[in-house]
Amino acid sequence: MTGLIIVLVVVVLLVLWLVGMYNRLVSLRNNRENAFANIDVQLKQRYDLVPQLVATVKGYADHEKELLEKITMARSAAMGATTINEKIEANTQLSSALAGLKVSVEAYPDLKANQNFLQLQSELSDIENKLAATRRFFNSTTRELNTAVQSFPANLIAGIFGFHKEPMFEIAQEERAIVEKAPEIKF
Hints:
Mean pLDDT: 78
Distance between the termini: 87 Å
Structural class: mainly alpha
Strand content: under 5%
Number of strands: 0
């Protein structure tokens, strides 16, 4: 009888431990999804601002049609993405297109002095800064989830319940070379 009680206590403790581990993984996954929801809020602001910015630039830079179409297509793709991974990829493309716009604008001194453009550029810069902060938080929650999913003994439970390593929100390969290059400072 005592042996049965000991076995029963061990089984109950094991079940409680499994439930606790599962609940922790669910909590970490939900934190990651919540962090991406914060990115979605910033992306929505960005999506709303981009058409205004494009329209303002279009008035000055009609021959930059290809770049503006690329931004518009990237925005549409980003808005149509449904999963977190699709949104990460689509927004990486939009970031790349917007970076091309910044370079193109340098050729238009009148545009750079236009009040509407300056305000839009300031708002876009603010949104990009907020996006950077929310992406850092998202990556932090993703790292925490990935660490839990890959750590022993949680990795045994994670695999059974479909938890797996999730991707970070990273810079696109084509942008990596630009970012890693030291900036040139000229006076």
